What we know:
The protein has 95 residues and is of the alpha+beta class. The chain has helices spanning 2-6, 10-18, 21-29, 48-57, 73-76, 78-94, and strands spanning 35-40, 61-66.
Amino acid sequence: MLAINGxxxxxxxxxxxxxxxxxxxxxxxxxxxxxxxxxxxxxxxxRTAMSERVKATHKDSRLSIFANSGHSxxxxxPDRFGRELATFVKAANRG
Length: 95
């Protein structure tokens, strides 16, 4: 994980820190499909407020907070992440 994360360009990491929630609103507001927002409670890179704002601006979105995870909740809580993602994909394909 450290090697992969170390390959992320510096500009990408800096972008996460500098991005304001309002910068994302046009993208998510106009997205036609459902959105699953998953967020680790202890994430130090992406603020929970961003996910909460996306949920507030997109009517067909769901926010799931992983209480025991940071930025890598898919790795830290893989069973729950997998279940929630599978449930979301199945429901999205029915609609």
